TrEMBL record:
Protein name (Swiss-Prot/TrEMBL): Uncharacterized protein
Native source organism of the sequence: Bauhinia variegata
């Protein structure tokens, strides 16, 4: 397994304002006036609340993060329920076996091939927390990821803005794709600019050549308008948090009382309806507003593989580890191409395009450490006289 690859460094923020002509915002995309909402609820009539219920969004919001089990002292029924769920989970793992237990099988396919590592951030490298600003990765995880990047080309593909995820990870050895892959820094590649109009060669803060790709650059001002509107119309909902990730907006409802989920879902839904070039998606207790372009984490993986020079599918084994619904696009790409492996991070049962599973961030770290140890053992074997 060859580990030769460049060492990217995040590009300076001042270099990101490069315009392109891939997409042009619709003239119909006009901001909604925050004043159309009242402190008591939606600008629509009460009957319009059925929009979120009838189209399945409320159910999706509830299903995006299953509640933790509450243990009742002295309740044999609860214990029986837990045992039953454990049995179901073990049955689920027959379809999504542990990547730790199947480690030898996974790396056996990588013989004579190069391994490329793709990682989500929240819920994969850091635990899910109530305040997304406090989703810090542990120093042991940071050291592990740094070691992985020493031996394998490694990229983090996150829904957060690229600048934000870099501030959290603090490793210059990686490649970064923020906003679900709509803001990518990868290794320099001359051929990509011929295929992707929004792909440009640039230099990072240390003067190294890199590839910068931002397919939704035309939407920056529109996303900022929607962000300001969403901040205004959700400010009376206790616990709601709105984040601007430059190319998408996240509305977190993790700390919102469940009886207010319908209200927050409806308000976000009503705003997005007035922007025909934007779409609404959901992740783990978060609603996300994104440009309606044909781009996602799966396409980001393909782009990064191409920029790394892995045009021959038989020469590389991509491994993607993630926990959220948005990672399914990457899992699907790897599954359908039979090119690599998707690994779902989950302690609960859910349908996925991944082939393997890990329970939590601790198991993610163990899996990554196994990869590092394997590479080190190979090095010691080669060094023997």
């Amino acid at each position: 397994m060859d580990s030769n690859h460049g060492s990217p460094v995040p590009i300076g923020k001042s270099r990101l304002g490069i315009f392109s002509s891939l997409l042009t915002c619709s003239q119909q995309d006009q901001p909604v006036s925050p004043g159309k909402y009242t402190r008591s609820g939606s600008r629509k009539s009460a009957a319009s609340l059925d929009d979120v219920r009838s189209n399945g969004w409320l159910d999706a919001m509830k299903a995006s993060s299953p509640p933790r089990k509450k243990l009742l002292k002295g309740s044999n029924i609860q214990v029986a329920s837990i045992d039953h769920e454990t049995e179901d989970y073990l049955s689920w793992m027959l379809d999504y076996p542990s990547a730790l237990e199947c480690f030898d099988k996974i790396v056996d396919r990588a013989k004579n091939n190069k391994i490329a590592i793709f990682l989500d951030y929240d819920g994969t490298l850091s635990p899910i927390v109530d305040n997304p600003d406090c989703a810090f990765m542990s120093e042991s995880m940071r050291a592990t990821v740094r070691s992985v990047a020493k031996y394998f080309p490694t990229a983090i593909i996150s829904g957060r803005s690229r600048d934000k995820v870099f501030d959290l990870v603090k490793l210059t050895e990686l490649y970064y794709a923020g906003s679900h892959g709509m803001d990518i820094i990868g290794p320099a590649c001359d051929s990509l600019s011929k295929v992707h109009p929004d792909c440009v060669k640039s230099r990072d803060d240390q003067g190294k050549e890199i590839t910068l790709f931002q397919p939704a650059r035309e939407f920056i001002s529109l996303i900022d308008q929607v962000f300001k509107t969403l901040v205004e119309i959700t400010k009376d909902i206790k616990g709601a948090k709105v984040e601007n990730h430059k190319f998408c907006v996240s509305v977190h409802y993790r700390n919102v009382e469940e009886n207010n989920w319908t209200a927050i879902g409806q308000r976000v839904h009503d705003v997005v309806k007035d922007y025909p070039r934007l779409r609404l998606t959901h992740g783990r207790k978060v609603l996300e507003v994104r440009p309606m372009i044909d781009w996602n984490k799966g396409k980001a993986v393909e782009f990064l593989l191409e920029s790394l020079g892995f045009t021959d599918r038989d020469s590389v084994l991509p491994i993607y580890i993630g926990d959220d619904k948005t990672d399914e696009d990457a899992f699907k790409v790897l599954r359908e191409s039979q090119q690599g492996y998707g690994i779902l991070v989950s302690s609960v049962m859910k349908e996925s395009n991944a082939l393997y599973s890990l329970r939590d961030t601790n198991e993610v770290m163990k899996f990554l450490q196994l990869l590092v140890n394997l590479k080190r053992q190979e090095g010691r074997t080669r060094d023997r006289p």
